[in-house]
Structure formats: C-alpha cells, structure tokens
Amino acid sequence: MQRVLVIDDNPDVGKALQVLLRLHDIDSLFVLTPQAGMDALQRDPDIALVIQDMNFSEDTTSGAEGRELFHSIRQLRPELPVVLLTAWTQLEVAVELVKQGAADYLAKPWDDVKLLANVQNLLELQALRQAQARQRSARIHSRETLAAHADLCGLVYQSDAMQALVTLAVKIANTDVPVLITGPNGAGKEKVAQIVQRNSRRRHQAFVCVNLGALPGDLLEAELFGADPGAYTGLNKTRIGRFEAADGGTLFLDELANLSAEGQAKLLRVLQCGEFQRLGSSETRRVDVRVISATNADLQGAVFAGRFREDLYYRLNVIELAVPPLSERREDVLPLLHHFLGTAGEIEPACVRALQAYEWPGNIRQLENACKRASILRAQGDFCLAHFGIDVAASAPRGRPVVEPSRQMIEQALAANAWVIAKAARQLGLSRQALYRRMEQYDIDAW
Fold it and tell me: 4-aspartylphosphate occurs at which residues (predicted)?
C-alpha cells in the first residue's frame, strides 16, 4: 500500500493533511521532526511520497533545515518524490530545490484541490515507476539467470526480442524434436542452432553443419546421405554422408529451401523412421540424428507454390525459432559494436547515432564486416562513420528519425562506463545534458 509521509513541526498542519488525504482513501503518516521522518523512511518501504516543511526550529525562516532534510531524503531514497510546503519567505529556496529534483512546492496556506491533485498524480507516477523498475529487474534477473544456467555460445545481445528467443531455444533444447530457425541472412541463425545443440543431451556428440545453398543440386543428396563407389562419374570409393557423420548428434541444415524434390523425400523418410540409403546402394541404414534446419526463404509460400513438400515442412517445423532482423532489435547494435571493435577506440557520437539509425540490411554479418573494415582503416583517434563504409542515407527511409536510446541502452552504457556520465554520453552519441535529460525522463538516478 502506498503511503504519504508528512514531516512538519506544526501538529495542526499534520492533522489537516491527514484528514484531507484520508477523505480520498490515501494512507498517510505524520511526524514532527526531520529525524523522525528519516527514521520512518528507513523502516517503511511503502512510503511513496513525502510532503515536508521548510523550517522546524522556532523563529527560523531561512529554509536551511528544509534544504538539509530534502538532501537527506534524496540520499536515502533518490527515487522518492518530495513536495515542499513553504512560506513566501522561503520561495527562492523551494524553487532552487525543485531544480535539484523536488517534485513540486506549495505555499502555505495551500489550496486543498491543487495539493490533492499533485499528490494523486505523483502517487500514480510513482506506482508506474515502481512497476517499470520491477519489470526491469525481472528482465535483468532473467538474462543473468539464463546466462548462468545455459551455454549461450558467446551470443551478444541486449534486446527483449533476443532474450525471448534465446529463452525458448534453451527451453526446447532437450526435447530432441526438429527445430526450424527462420530469419534473414546474417541475423544469427547458425548461432541459435549452436545454442540449441550445446544445451541438449547431444551436446557432447557431433554437430555437423551443411550449407545446402552452397552445394550444386546434383551433389546435395550425396552430401547428405553419402554414395557408394560408381554412384556417379569419378566416385571410386565410399562417400560418407552428413547424416552418418552426425549419427548420435545434431545435423544443422542451412538454406533448407534449396533441397531438391528427391532430397526432400529422402529427408522426410529419415525424419519419420531414421532410415536412408546411400546413392547407388539398396542397403537401408539407420541413424539417430536430431535435425535443426534454417532458412531465409518463405517456406509456407514454397509449399503453396508446390516447390516444397507440405508434409516435410510440418515435420521440420515442430518448433520454430524466428530470429528478428537487426533493424527490429536496435538495442543490440551498441553491444555488438563494442564486441566487434573491442578496446580499439571510442566511436564519435554522431557515428554512434548513425550506426544505430542504419537499417543493416545484411544484419549482424554486415555489422561485423563493417567493424573489421573500420578497425583496419582507423589510424588513430575515434572511429568515424567513414571508417565503416556504409551509406546511411541510402538505407534509412526518408524522414526517419534518429534512433532514440532506450532505457536498456542507457543503463547498459552507464554500467559499461562505471556510471561516468561523460563517457556514457559519448558512447551513446549524446551530450552530457542530453543524457541527464533522458535519465530524468526514465527516472534513472546517477550513482
């Protein structure tokens, strides 16, 4: 339950405020001294708002005691809104404290309607901030828990979208069912496949990768299922296929849409009963292989067009892991930049903004290659946009605004720079004042 703490040396003021708040179902606590107020804050976590006087000693009108109390509250509970009750003689002090973070000030005698409206608005805002803080803590805890209990294969990410994807990948890893990973080229489908394999019961067995898109059509079947001598011109010895090589482990089939009709039929049989035949052989062989496949194509569209078997599609798509493009998870751009560039140097603020706004049509692969290029071309000083060799203007849709850093991006930059505002601002491509404004907007307190 939210509670309002009233700190005032006048019992009549305290009683009047408590009655007003009680009439509107707002719980309150009244104390007479700053020390009693600080004691209450230390023992009562439900206090969500403070209304404090500016003077507590008889014949004192400077507001110095109120200033000291305000700073003590801010030090103990920096997220707590404070409303100042002030006489006109302390108005300048109250205005100064509002600039330093006080929520508002009200002159005595106060207007009940205005005071009540301020209190209700601040309590609603505080409830929203607390809910956001709980969600943020839950997200951080979820990422830390996942990283502590699962092998994420060095995956670098910050976005909620990737957290949800990786959580699902780890969850289904031990089920041993076929997995279909979809997403654009360069988005990290093979990395997701590795995560599934490394967290499965087959983690210590073979992990065999086949890029079906890199093989000629007439060699696909031999590559997958093997071939006996004489199966095709020039083959003089037995060729072991990838299924046999992966027996007991995991087979990752990339660019699945390139598989021929005959190859699709043989793959379906392996999935159904674990049996296949080498090219040029009538002997049936059995294997125990988990199949993880990936594609950047629209397999459902290929099914409708008759280019891909519907029964095979549903066999492979027991679990689908859809990897979003980098343009849909921009929170990941900054950590990826620092991962690929290492400690080589800082990035100019304008460059950071441009790289975060860029569409990255080639996704993570393009970002990695751009970072390699920048590392080679940069002689000294900070990285600038020219080092990365990308055409930002050609990528961004007309009128598209520069990406605004999210709460996650700001918190990550602050943590990475030990909460040194100047360094975090530079990393985010902002001025110190701009970062302070966004920290205030997101209710992030400087440590």
Answer: 53
